[in-house]
Design brief:
The complex is a heterodimer of chains A (about 130) and B (about 425). Chain A is about 35% helix and about 25% strand. With about 130 residues, chain A is α+β, with helices and mostly antiparallel strands. Chain A has a 4-stranded antiparallel β-sheet, with helices on one face. The chains are: A alpha+beta (about 130), B mainly alpha (about 425).
Chain lengths: ~130, ~425
């Protein structure tokens, strides 16, 4: 899948999920490198710990599922009328972190090739831990 | 490989081995093998009940087709879980009427070539390779029913299978967008779509024969016991996987699976325990079996194929709660249009219509019944459109029905004034 299309689908599905909460503000931030990308999503609706855990579980599946990621993953970001399905994203990203920021929910997605190095990205681990 | 996955491999290998041995034991092994070779040279288009030719050879064929699927799953390094087990059960089921190792292999190889060209692993396209064998009759129809010299027809059949397999990944992804995962047999939908073009190409070349129905009207004794035994084995295996002490927990898990809408892709092994998923498969098998007995349909190849497919999808989208409304819809349509519930079309529609189970799971009983009602009169027409080349004809009709219903429901949902900005 081409990078532009892939990113478009991921952003579409996660924004669909965040818009379900009817936020007043939402920010999507993208940082691309040659071998990967980091996408951050922020809104102004903090979630309780149970909700955060549910989102974390959906975005960080227990096992790699190439058979589901490639084929069913194509549905991600296409369907804005019904509830978002974060698991479609979880199979396709390297890692996801989910926390409440100062204002509301924050989701970080890392995606890229096998040689992808998260250290190249501006949002460092230390900063992530703070949020 | 996890312990549970190893157990599942053993379990499926035992089922396939038992089927193959039963097939060989029914007639003399040499006779079975001879009949098995005869099966390979049948066209296999809808509707060819292999049990009419030989029950032993049919069981052996079904076991080999299933083994092909299991081997593909193993070597493509994907997990043996909901979707892959559903595909293996479906392969075995269609090994009773249309699929043979000979007509499956070129399609699988075509998908593998497609994966190579797209720089993907076979694992990424493994489900397309497994379910794509629905177009198997294209291979054997061209090989053996076009009355061409074998030296020409065999390479032509293989080439057609390779080409179909190569095209499927591109089509399957796009077809998913149409129904948004509400038709469980999406590859059946894709194969029917591709089959339309192939069938009309063959018609233009005056090479498309009319459809014939080869339907065993008697239930062979061994086939009568197949589903109840398999369901019991599933229950037993559910207890082995979860532990006999945890039987209450397993049953509780089974009940919680009934709450899932089942929209693609819902792997029940991820949603519940292994035991509760296997129990769901067993109950779906028994439910389907009882329905077939009640309406008085024969337990022949296609009917068993339907039950095996329902059982297989018991770990990938189907449960009792989301399946029954669609079946009720088919039954109502059958009665309204004055058809016989045990006739080939209605009985197969009643089993395979559960491809639309996610509609009932997501939108409720009435939506499910409407889907089932529409499905019956659609499925009776669609086989002619693709010339019987797509074995998952119900997947094709189901895809059309789901696309229609999802489009209407989506239009209603996106035009609700309450959710609009204030004017």
């Amino acid at each position: 899948m081409k990078r532009k299309e892939f990113l478009g689908r991921l952003i579409g599905e996660v924004t669909n999920f965040m818009l379900q909460g009817n936020p007043l503000r939402m920010v999507v931030s993208l940082h691309q490198e040659d071998d990967g990308a980091h996408v951050s999503f922020f809104d102004d609706r903090p979630r309780n710990e149970e909700e955060l855990e549910r989102i974390r579980t959906a975005l960080n599946p227990k096992a790699l599922r190439p058979e589901l990621a490639e084929y069913y993953g194509m549905m991600a970001g296409h369907d804005m009328a019904w509830d978002a399905r974060l698991k479609l994203i979880g199979w396709q990203v390297k890692h996801a972190s989910v926390d409440n920021s100062d204002s509301g929910l924050r989701i970080d997605l890392w995606l890229g090739s096998d040689s992808f190095n998260p250290d190249n990205f501006t949002i460092k681990k230390a900063d992530k831990d703070k949020t | 490989m996890e312990r549970t996955e190893k157990l599942l491999y053993r379990f499926i290998a035992i089922i396939l081995g038992a089927l193959a041995l039963t097939g060989l034991a029914l007639d003399l092994p040499l006779t079975t093998l001879k009949d098995f070779l005869t099966l390979q040279t049948t066209g296999g288009r809808l509707l060819t009940d292999f049990t009419v030719f030989s029950v032993g050879a049919t069981l052996f064929n079904a076991a080999l087709v299933g083994t092909l699927g299991l081997v593909l799953v193993y070597f493509s390094e994907v997990s043996l879980s909901g979707p892959t087990i559903a595909s293996i059960f479906t392969l075995v089921g269609f090994g009773f009427f249309g699929k043979t190792p000979l007509n499956c292999l070129p399609i699988m190889a075509g998908v593998w070539i497609g994966a190579k060209v797209a720089r993907k692993t076979l694992g990424s396209y493994s489900l397309i390779a497994l379910f794509g064998t629905a177009l198997g009759p294209l291979v054997t129809y061209i090989m053996f029913e076009l009355n061409l010299p074998l030296v020409l027809s065999i390479p032509l059949g293989i080439g057609s299978g390779l080409a179909a397999g190569f095209l499927l990944p591109s089509i399957a992804g796009s077809m998913l967008q149409l129904h948004q995962g509400y038709n469980l047999y999406n590859i059946g939908f894709s194969c029917g779509f591709l089959g339309l073009f192939i069938s009309n190409l063959l018609k233009a070349a005056n090479s498309m024969e009319d459809l014939t129905i080869i339907w065993n009207t008697t239930s062979e004794p061994i086939l009568i016991w197949l589903v109840p035994i398999l369901s019991l084995v599933l229950f037993l295996f559910a207890l082995i996987c979860d532990g006999v002490k945890n039987v209450k927990k397993t049953f509780k898990g089974f009940l919680s699976l009934q709450q899932l809408p089942g929209r693609l892709p819902t792997d029940f092994f991820d949603a519940g325990s292994t035991g509760s998923t296997l129990m769901n498969m067993g109950f779906l098998g028994l439910g389907s079996y009882i329905y077939v007995l009640v309406v008085g349909a024969p337990l022949n190849g296609p009917v068993l194929g339907g039950i095996f497919t329902v059982m297989g999808f018991g770990c990938f989208g189907k449960n009792l709660k989301n399946s029954y409304p669609v079946v009720v819809g088919v039954v109502l349509a059958t009665l309204v249009f004055g058809k016989d519930l045990s006739a080939p079309g209605p009985i197969l529609a009643a089993l395979f219509c559960t491809t639309l189970a996610p509609i009932a799971g997501q939108f409720g009983i009435i939506a499910g019944m409407i889907a089932g009602f529409i499905h019956l009169f659609m499925v009776e027409a669609t086989a002619l459109w693709h010339g019987g080349l797509d074995l998952y004809n119900n997947g094709f009709a189901g895809g059309l029905t789901a696309t229609l219903l999802v489009a209407i429901l989506q239009w209603f949902k996106t035009n609700r004034p309450k959710e609009d900005f204030e004017q």
